[in-house]
Amino acid sequence: MLKFLKQVSDYAKDSFQAAKYIGQGLAVTFDHMGRRPVTVQYPYEKLIPSERYRGRIHFEFDKCISCEVCVRVCPINLPVVDWEFNKEQKKKKLNHYSIDFGVCIFCGNCVEYCPTNCLSMTEEYELSAYDRHELNYDNVALGRLPEKVTLDPMVQPMRELAYLPKGVTDPHDLPKGSQRAGRRPEDILEEIEAEKAKRETASAESEKN
Amino acid sequence: MGTVLVRNLHILSVDMESGIDLQGSVIQILGGFGVPAGLAKVIWMPVPMLLMLVAATVGVLVTVWLERKISAAAQQRVGPELAGPLGTLQPVADGLKLLFKEDIIPTRADPWLFTIGPAIVVIPVFLSYLIVPFGQNLVITDLSIGAFLWIALSSITPIGLLMSGYSSNNKYALIGGLRAAAQSISYEIPLALSVLAIVLMSNSLSTIDIVNQQADYGILSWNLWRQPVGFVIFWVAALAETERLPFDLPEAEEELVAGYQTEYTGMKFALFYLGSYVNLVLSALLVSVFYLGGWSLPIPVETLTQWLGVDEFSPVVQVITGSLGITMVLLKTYLFVFLAVLLRWTTPRVRIDQLLNLGWKFLLPVSLANLLITAALKLAFPVAFGG
Q1: pTM, 2 dp
Q2: In A, residues 140-179, which contact B (CB 8 Å cutoff)?
Q3: What confidence tens digit (pLDDT) does each residue in B230-253 have?
Q4: Rounded CA gap, B87 and B71, in Å?
Q5: What is the DSSP letter of B359?
């Protein structure tokens, strides 16, 4: 009898505990309802891509020396470099260059290894097309500059989380001129250079003595 | 026994004069134009039915919008906001889209059962609105077996689900239909038992009487305080009956695509969609009727009119209290709709064995015990428990 009563009381305790946990869960969900939406309302608001964003690749035709390094470092030998050897100048002459962005994985190896820096990454990511062959960009299309999100009058540019001031998680209604948390790269560079100059003067002085 | 009779008679005599009698006034007005009373009644009859159909449909539109907006808020999204102000026309747009879609019957499906299935699911739900009261006389029929009618009608739905699941020629649909039937059958019993406890306390199956029984002392006399266990069981079982999220395994998309709805498109799918939301609103309405005193205000109307020093039976006050009553019912109902949506984003889906365990091994014995305790309390304290 006692054992049975214990079972009953344990069961009741378990049920109340379950109800308590559901209640706590409801409180969490309810709390979230008061918070501001975190979503970016895409066609009207867009995130500003970060400095190192790996978007559509930009190509400068005149800088290219047709060395085909980009083809060799590409995981799938994607760039098509169409050149012919100019016998008078003893130089390769580039005719066409194309990258198919329907196949590209935007790893950035070609940009990394290009000896003349004629390849670069842009912040363009809106690459949708009705036909996949439209994504095969030739050197003219590759040479177009991307449109900046911040310059589009139809778009409200939003900063990404890493570019918000310390403790702020919402990119809406930021005060003007607010800077991101931590030190900026140019500040760090300045500091390093100042330290280097100081060390050099110190070593020069020690040599003098 | 004698006192009970006298009390009931007293309630009856009050009922005779209280509340707005739309039917009576319409018959009277038509009688003024020389229309005989019988014909006037026939003219009047379809009006409340059509009104209720429209009200139920509009209620669904509101609920769909609320569900989408509340879900969005709970997930820190914005939700629909482009169709109409604040996205209020989004459910209308959804409905129109479904209306214009092609009606597909899969090959080797049973076309008859496939077509009848959704209708059998939807019709009983709409029929159940017959007994939902919004005021003393603001109800289509004050059936003396109202609560029983609802329980009877709600057990027709799983037949429709089973039919559509079986006729779809699709294994997911079949499993979904079977699950829906199993779930409905096992949760109907605790639901009926908790309603029975209410019925025991109010000595009537009529929804009007059930509300009147709770109206004496305002918020203090609501059944919620006398039937807390029954209230929780009723709500859990109602969620299971309407296949809302902790219990939505008949249409669990991760395992069953969409359950019995998998093969449906266009208007037939719209019927399922409509049916599930009408059922949700109906369950919320009945929770507010059975446990939260229906149209009665937190402070009784008599007390309020006494404080304000106005005549309770003057026409203006009658209209005001009538519309206040409707507002109260809708407020309580949508509170529960809100709770259902919140629960949807809080609780994970239960497994089928957990579902049946909860139904048969927990809710059923607890609701039986609740019924027995209610009966005992009724015998012991007839004053507080409606002897």
Answers
A1: 0.79
A2: none
A3: 999 999 999 998 888 788 877 777
A4: 14
A5: I
